[in-house]
Amino acid sequence: MTANGWFQILLFLALILAVTKPLGVFMARVFNRERTFLDVLVRPLERLLYRITGVDENHDMAWTEYAFCMLLFSAVSMLLLYGILRLQQVLPWNPQRLAAVAPGLAFNTAASFTTNTNWQNYSGESAMSYLTQMAGLAYHNFTSAAVGIALAIAFIRGIARREKETIGNFWVDMTRATLWVLLPMCIVGALLLVSQGVVQNLRPYDTAKLVEPQQVQKTGADGKPMVSAEGKPVMDNATDQTIAQGPVASQEVIKELGTNGGGFFNANSAHPFENPTPFSNYLEMIFIFAIPAGLTYTLGRMTGSARHGWAVWAAMAFLFFCGVTAAYWAEAKGNPLLAGVDQRVSATQPGGNMEGKEVRFGIANSALFATVTTDASCGAVNGFHDSFTPLGGMVPLVNIILSEVVFGGVGAGLYGVLIYVVLAVFIAGLMVGRTPEYLGKKIEAYDVKMAMLVTLVFPLVILTFTAISSVEGFGTSSITNPGPHGFTQVLYAFVSQAGNNGSAFGGLNGNTPWYNTSGAITMLVGRFFMVLPMLAIAGNLAKNKYVPPSLGTFPVTTPLFSVLLVGVIVIVGALTFFPALSLGPILEHLMMTAGKTF
Amino acid sequence: MKKNLLISVWMTIATTILLGIVYPLVVTGLAQVLFKDKANGQLIAQNGRIVGSRIIGQAFTGPTYFHSRPSGAGNGYDAANSSASNLGPTNMSLIDRVKASVATEGGGSAGPVPVDLVTMSGSGLDPHISPAAAEFQVGRVARERGVSGDDLRRLVLSHTEGRQLGFLGEARVNVLELNLELDERFPLRRQAKAD
Predict the structure, then answer these.
(1) In angstroms, rounded to a whole number, what is the distance separating the alpha carbons of residues A170 and A542?
(2) Measured between beta carbons, which residues in chain B are less than 8 angstroms from residue A219?
């Protein structure tokens, strides 16, 4: 670890702190339908959209109608994506003439992008046409993020409103999230990324003459390296390099800003065309945290308690700092099993565990990116988690296990943490023997039951599928790293999909009937079984009367509250998953320090 | 119910046109006007032929060139198949592969090899090596090309980028650009003849 590394990490947190309030205020104004500086440009577009689609913007919805519209829109847009994937060979903007996506993979991918997960069982550059990337995948990066923001705003309204049956209009919230928040930031952000070298074109792939032709092993028709009848590798003289192109920047920016994470290319944000410089890397990390951080302030502002928003922010920042410290420490130490290798950090080399990492990012920015992308439910990667050290790789895993509430996904992070807030307030209420209250609302048995439903469905789906995949042949045959690391690959896959994260221990071969299907189910459950109970709580809270705070009310604006919130998040997450973690990364770490390989 | 179903259909169509077609095309247009070279991948042309991209690595394995990092992309630096190795830290395949790379790079006799030179990058297309990894190879390339180490070091230095803005990321050497200039400034005898 270096002073410069720490400086970059601390500066990053300071920048997130700096954008929280301006963005939070802006979003509060957008969703309260107050005036903003963008109205001149965007309001006519909004009106036009409502006229075309038939939305009545003055209609307010009960939580049930709100949820129904959200499900309908998700279903219709998911169907469209499935159609595009299956028909891309006859659609335009397919210069490489890529074939239709197979049904199982298309189902998995459609579920993945609709749920804001962006789990990818394919390589973008060899499977998806430019049209699919733009109108199919990047499109869902926008809408799944806008839906997430809308849901978070609906929950905040539930807390803020008194004796009301309604929590807002889904269509209006989603449209405003898109037109006021996501789209303007994307246009500016995309151009910033292009200025760093992220490509943005519709040209066919280029072919370059290699400076030094290489002897390489031929690839057979089955995609595996070819061997002759005698078992010798079949060699080929490679003289060309095919360079994949595409409309990358426009997708890259919403991939981070909407905490989606699905790479245009297989290598995601490690690819030089997605993330060419340390500055583009820093920008991408700021994009990931910007909206989730801002939403904590929106929460404070819309509920009339800015200090509560900051108390939630502080709890998140603390958990972020713990994660990045552990990851940076573990990765900078390197891999003790490598012999004859200089892993020391110096002025002329990054050192540490460089397998799966890029030289321009080094250790500090790779550990930071891995922490950020899993604190939020982004899932973009600039270094490959499968090759992290056991403890370094456990940090992203644990971050997702904690339900990605450390700033979290756009919207999903906020309503996720509010579930924990309800539990924290409930536990505090139990300790002093009073009916728990939250910002003037009584927390009732109904609310706590719904919150528990959310926290129980998550481990249930993960642990069930992980257990089946760890013992059955159709599950274990996809594992590519032996020993405890192989178990971690499977656990990470289901944790990531249930958490709608989308990052992976990428070695696991996910493009099989079993993983495509179980994964799609996991992602759909992880999104919608979390959202429905959450909206039910919002609807119930909106109906409740305001109860003025009294001496016995547990204040949610103090450092004590932040500490309690951190405690609840860690205890619920850690206790549920500790046995699984000890079989995977913890065991592997102990074996590694004992010098054992597999 | 029926009203909301109709809205969701129309909303999907309208937003797909706006966000899926108009937005990326507008960004493409702006990018092509404002940053033409960067938007198209910073391709390097020599004698009318594309020889690579400034920011996509290429394999260099011969003794006369500065080597790039090992690559997991396709069968090595396949820029239409970006990929990491995804080998875990305790996987014997990783340990053995690194051991073989250390031997190829002449580790042992020349001391421990800088770690980035014997590990695969995340993209498999890393255009860079660390300054330490370049320095490690100066002796070999100087010997093979019959030039002085100091001349070579100056060349390496001219292709070394420091941290961006002075503090972001890591110092790095662009391997393709370095080797291209190597061929230009200190050509091998057979290359000189061919010209």
Answers:
(1) 16
(2) 74-75
Contacts of B176 in chain A (CB under 8 A): 211
* Average pLDDT over all residues of chain B: 94
**Chain B residues lying within 8 Å of A591, measured CB to CB:** 90
Confidence at residue B189, expressed as pLDDT on a 0 to 100 scale: 67
Contact predicate A387/A505, CB 8 Å: no
Query: What is the H or E stretch that residue A342 is in?
Result: strand A341-342
Q: In sequence order, what are the residues at sequence separation of 6 or more whose Cβ sits closer than 8 angstroms to the Cβ of residue A102? A: none
Are the C-beta atoms of B138 and B153 separated by less than 8 Å?
yes
A269 to each of A47, A349, A494, B53, B70, how far by Cα in Å?
36, 21, 22, 18, 19
Q: Tens digit of pLDDT for each residue in B95-118?
A: 999 999 999 998 777 789 999 999
Cα distances (angstroms) measured from residue A2 to each of A317, A350, A403, A529: 21, 10, 30, 43
Q: Using CB atoms, which residue from A8, A201, A270 is nearest to B168?
A: A8
Tell me what pLDDT residue B107 has.
76
Task: Judge whether A351 and A334 are in contact, CB under 8 Å.
Answer: yes
**Residue B46 to residues A367, A370, B105, B184: CA-CA distances in angstroms?**
38, 39, 29, 11
State the greatest distance between any 2 C-alpha atoms of chain A, in Å, as a whole number.
84
For residue B65, give the 3-state DSSP assignment: coil
Of residues A413, A414, A419, the one with CA closest to residue A443: A419
Mapping DSSP to helix (H, G, I), strand (E, B) and coil, where does residue B43 land?
A: strand
Report CB contact under 8 Å: A598, B12. no
Radius of gyration of the CA atoms of chain A, in A: 24
Please check the confidence at residue B195 and state whether its pLDDT lies above 50.
no
pLDDT per position as a tens digit, A315-360: 999 999 999 999 999 999 999 999 899 999 998 999 999 999 999 9
DSSP state letter for A517: H
Helix axes A278-302, A139-160, angle to 10 degrees: 30
**Is B152 in the A-facing interface, judged by CB distances under 8 Å?**
no
Cβ within 8 Å, pair A241-B135: no
Query: Are A199 and B40 within 8 A, CB to CB?
Result: yes
How many CB atoms neighbour CB A517 within 10 A? 14
Mean pLDDT along residues B33-57: 96
Cβ contacts (< 8 Å) between B20 and chain A: which residues? 134-136, 138-139
Question: A456 and A576 in contact (C-beta within 8 Å)?
Answer: no
* Helix, strand, coil percent content, chain B, rounded in steps of 5: 50, 10, 40
Cα separation, A178 vs A270, in Å, equals 27
What pLDDT shows up at residue A573? 83
For chain B, percent of residues with pLDDT exceeding 90:
90
Residue of B40, B90, B159, B167 to mutate, testing the A interface (most A Cβ within 10 Å of its Cβ): B90
Check: CB of residue A343 under 8 Å from CB of residue B115. Answer: yes
Torsional class of A408: left (φ above 0), alpha (ψ -120 to 50), beta (otherwise): left
- Summary mean pLDDT of chain A: 94
Residue A422 and residue A443 in contact, taking contact as beta carbons nearer than 8 Å: yes
Instruction: Read off the DSSP letter of residue A552.
Output: T
Task: Please return the burial class of B37, using the count of CB atoms within 10 Å of its CB with bins 0-12, 13-18 and 19+.
Answer: exposed
Helix pair angle (A445-471, A484-498), 10° resolution: 140
CA A482 to chain centre: 27
Q: Check if the beta carbon of residue A294 is closer than 8 Å to that of residue A20.
A: yes
> What does the block give as tokens for A368?
């930071």
Low-confidence ranges of chain A (pLDDT < 50): none
How much is the pLDDT for B193? 44
| 8 Å CB contact of A208 and B52 | yes
Domain boundaries defined on chain B: 1-40, 41-194
